[in-house]
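name: query_chain
kind: protein
chains: 1
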Amino acid sequence: MRYGAALSVVMIASQAVAQVTTPAVTPDEASQVDEVVVSALRQTMQTSIAVKRDSTAIVDALSSKEIGDLPGQSIGEAIETITGATADRANYGPTEISLRGLGSFLSATTFNGREASNGSGDRAVNFGQFPSELFNGIKIYKSQQADLIEGGVAGSIELETKKPLDYGKRLVSGELKGNYNSYQDRIKGANPWGWRGTASYVDQYDLGSLGELGVSLGVQRNAVDDPNEIYIGSNTWVACNPLIVSKTNCTEVSRAQAAAGAPFYLAPNSLSYRQLTADERRDAIFGAIQWKPNDRIDVNLDVEYSKRRYTEDRHDFGLAETRYNLHNVKYDDDGKLLYAEGSSTLQSVSTLFQRQERYFGGGGSVAFEATDRLTLSTDVSYSQTVRDDFTRSTRLRSDPLDIYGKTTAINNQRVPYVYDARNGFAPTLAIDPRFDVNNHDLYSDDTRLTREEEQKKDRILAARFDARYDLDGFLSRIDAGLRWSDRRYTSYDDLVTIDQASLAVDRTVNLACRQPFPQTDFLSDAPGNQMKSWATFDTLCQFQNYLGTTDPGGSGDLRSVANADVTETVWSGYLMGSYKGDAGKVPVRGNFGARFVKTEVASKGLRAGLDVVTNPDGSIRLVENGDFDSTTIKASSFRVLPSVNANFDLSPKTMLRLAAYRAMSRPAPSSLTAGRAITLQDGTDFTSIQDAIGEIVASGSPRLKPIMSWNGDIALEYYANRDTILAGTVYYKQFTGGFIPVTKDETFVIGGQPVTVPVTQTQNSDEKSHVYGVEVTLANQFTWLPHPFDGFGGKISYNYAVSNFKNYDIRLGDVIDPDTQQVTEGMIPAASLGGYSKHVLSAQLYYEAGPFNIQGIYRYRSKYYQDFIGGNAQLRYISGNDTFDLSASYKVNRHVDIRFQALNLFNETKIDSMPIYGSTREYQYFGPQFFIGVRAKL
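structure:
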């Protein structure tokens, strides 16, 4: 049973809470307890509990006294052990983090109190690029307070590196891990072993009259390969009419027809199997200097650099026309396609994808105690991520003739197939056996080579000034501050397409660039009779033999309607008061205040230029002229974010927390782009420019406003002792609305004439929506059990949330007329919040016996909606998944320990559905990974 292990931990830990009789720890006792030597696992648990208890807001934390003691290979894996936190996972582990079952776009992340840039185009941080070995603390603010940077509707994640003077001792450490990947072992001729090395240095120096100086440096090299095996469909799905059996593409059903009762089933444009070999190298360097010239001045400088080089050698076998000649169709009441027979052009696509991603961040801060009561501080920071993707791909397709000009057994470009999705999440594709998918001779037509170069750049400049004034009495402190930030997101996509029509050349290159299928046991872990192999080719060999070079170069013109150039300028200020006293006989502390936020957006975009040509009969036609018209769309918003936190010490062990606050989360920068793509109607004789335009699709929606929410939290926490916590929180969030497709009139200059045309894009809806939920945390060291069972300890956290927030499919969902506010009903149900999972569970069980410890971590997340970066796309769902990781260590002596870790031990599948849940678009297998290494500390 999925929850079995977790429930066992709950039952044991519940007994622990009932039996623990340890009195509350006084400060004097604490100083004595600190002298007791405890293991890294137990100490991390204790420190995390202490951070939560001492916080003014509602906070969950993972904190260790020692650098490098956080669990996991990346900071994302470490965060997943915190209550209510869960990750989006890729083949290389956790990437973006969701809090309380809500998507990453509703969370804010700071690195040492600063915003961090991103290479994906959204506001989430790719936690996979940060090694956990170089951090010592993570806080998640579940409630907001005025001095926190805005953006945390679901919560704010604060990553912390230890300041060298505050660390207070010298550290020289090094760790070397070997990695074994079972899926890499399937790749023919590949080495299944990788490695990961980390080194850290921290020290302090007495400069005499110049004060104290602390320095820290951490470096890491990661060389771990991450292959995966994939079934994948297109990003566009169409509603087809089953009552009309077409010999070509299926007949589409409109929203109006569906509302009138017309049946439909949902079909993708294409389907593929993908074999993928991956190679990854990542380097990270973190450095910091802390200088205290005297007791009143604290100066900090830090810098972070990460460089990731990632390569995928892909080989796809695909059906290019999965809407063609569909018959004998079976589908369910929701429109999910269960079975179909059809015919499609088949293709073998060879791709070499290369990514280089560079992160550079850093800044400086100065804190000055002007008086015994007044502290002034300032911070200036810079963060930039540059992601460069370089893709070369060659497509070969089926034809009535093979490469020698002989007629094939089918004598048709399109090959019959059967699609069957009646037996679980993994559809099967049965190809007519007359077409041997492993015969290279049969891929003889429609050769197309593509070279694509894409860059995304995200840069943040920020500065802040803060003042703190301590008071006597109930109002104990006043904080105030100003912050400015300038964020610029740019992207371009340079695509070069080369079609090759010579059959003689096709034959020569086909023969020269054939290769055996690159791996064994492809999709052997997937259910059903899946494709096991097909004819594959060497990508660079194809480029060399077709073009005489492996790189034909770019187009020379980077202009495109898909380009992005978004600048976001934010001015914010806050005023916050902290209080401490008694409410009757109950001690109370907390804060109250407000944050004021002005956001300005300027989005530059391109629109394809068109000329108007008049026909002899007086009608017109539109002709693309290759030029582009530029446009800039500006938008702004001003928001006030009040907040109040109150903490009541009901007893020395029990605390009641109340929080009420308003929060905001801005749209992703890539969703604010201003490009517009114009599609022309078929034909050449139109009476007006409007008639000649088929549709205009927005690449983004610059006028999108922040999502706003009013929030309330009630938390009750019981601290039996330093090892034990039982905490529960009930929370409520009311949103001002979701996202809905809208058709807006925009003016274009075409042939020198201003023309008003409707454009489909996304806007905020006025519909009210809410999220309410509960989260529970239970942690205990089982010292109440008899020896040797007193070495057990554990933690379990669970979050349950319910939401009626709505995101509508851009093609098949509700659409609104902005003038009349009339809603045209969609054909498929809306999704909820991006990243919203109703259930999130994390359970840890560990055992310590002298120098040995072992820990198992189980994570579960129910299904959720995940939008495509950039917005204006169809709905995509991720199925619920659970993973289990295992780690162990043995301390040889005070300086050396040996460590082992197994990730994704039971090979959990990642399953995507579009555009309704259960309609499988993609599934992936990553395989388990194993690490073993040694760490030395001086």
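note: Confidence is low (pLDDT under 50) at residues 1-37.
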